[in-house]
Amino acid sequence: MSWVDSIQQAIDYIENHLLDGDLSVEQIAKKCNSSPFHFQRTFSILTDSTIGDYIRRRRLTLAAQELINTNDKIIDIAYKYGYETPESFAKAFRKQHNLSPKEARKKLGPLQSYNRLTIKIKLEGAIPMNYKIVEKDAFQVIGVKRTYNYKNGDNIRGIPQFWNDVHADGTNDRLVDLNNGDIQGVLGVCSVDENEKQTGLMDYWIASAFKGDVPNSMDAFKIPASKWAIFEVHGPMPHAMQDTWKKIYSEWFPSNPYNPAGTAELEVYTNDNPSNANYYSEIWIPIQ
User: Fold this and answer.
1) Greater confidence, 169 or 4?
2) Residue 245: what are its φ and ψ, rounded to 5°?
3) Tens-place pLDDT, residues 117-152
4) What gap in Å lies between CA 91 and CA 86, rounded to an integer?
5) Are 214 and 141 in contact (CB under 8 A)?
6) What are the structural domains, with CATH classification, of the chain?
7) What secondary structure letter does DSSP report for 287?
8) How far is CA 158 from the centre of its chain?
9) Rounded CA separation 227/133 (Å)
10) Cis peptide leading into 238, omega within 30 of 0?
11) Is 259's pLDDT higher than 60?
12) Which segments constitute the HTH araC/xylS-type domain (predicted)?
């Protein structure tokens, strides 16, 4: 089964089990032989949405269709789509559709529809992706970390604020000064500990490659020996980085005989002005 087929099979599984109240990321990820973290990460990169958000939006889309096309009681529709009370259903429904369920039934305004997802490979031959495959021994990074719940999208909201904080308090400048390892630049390191895979937690480090004793106020993390796919990123932050991640998962992985290895992934930020149109950075993904 190809990478695209396996992701599509997982999405089809979601659609076929939207009425299951206990539908979990773990169940879905098994359908594409992926870890929960990497499936959630891939899904978010491709769709700009978390698994939870997609399930909620699809359920509320289908609930709206039933409201306008059937005479079923609103309370029955609420229970059917996983809401324990009419009040919680009405609150979620209004947030998506800008209407109450009663107003939707009376057809007093437009509804917001989220359609079933279909994953497709895009043919993008005009703009090549520059990358290289390298093997690298284990190395140490030092820095600061925060832990996020990736199942509810906490990482998507929290990581940009984390970067703002390390720039504001001087940590970023200190990491630049301490950087004496083989990789030049400040790193964003995304990692999931084996013990945390069932909890939905991930660690995100802002760090730099460093050889020597760990300085005060810093923690250390060992990046394991890996075969890496290293992608060039050209353009201002954050859009250039986000666009490259999307191209990697929507174009590069489907077209190449590799899969993510599941260990720590890196974003490498050089010391130039990140707002510059020619700013250079990199994405490092361990592959197998």
Assistant:
1) 169
2) -55, -45
3) 876 655 555 467 899 999 999 999 999 999 998 888
4) 9
5) no
6) 3-105 (1.10.10.60), 131-286 (3.20.80.10)
7) B
8) 12
9) 7
10) yes
11) yes
12) 8-107
270 pLDDT more than 80: yes
Question: Closest Cα partner for 224 from 176, 187, 252, 266?
Answer: 266
Least confidently predicted of 87-101, 217-231, 237-251: 237-251
Rounded to a whole number of angstroms, the distance between the first and last alpha carbons of the chain is 16
Question: Which residue, chain included where needed, has tokens 């996983």?
Answer: 82
- Show the tokens assigned to 115: 């359609």
* Pick from 257, 267, 139, 265: nearest CA to 209: 139
E runs forming strands in 150-264: 186-191, 201-209, 219-223, 226-234
Q: Is 186 exposed, middle or buried (0-12, 13-18, 19+ CB in 10 A)?
A: buried
Tell me the residue type at 284: W
Q: Which residues, 6 or more positions from 220, have their beta carbon under 8 angstroms from its beta carbon?
A: 140, 141, 142, 210, 214
Which two structure tokens, joined as six digits, stand for 215? Answer: 């300085």
For the residues 231-260, what does the mean pLDDT come to?
89
Is the per-residue pLDDT at 46 higher than 70? yes
DSSP secondary structure of 240-251: HHHHHHHHIIII
Q: Are 104 and 93 in contact (CB under 8 A)?
A: yes
Q: Which residues, listed in sequence order, are joined to residue 233 by a DSSP beta bridge?
A: 281
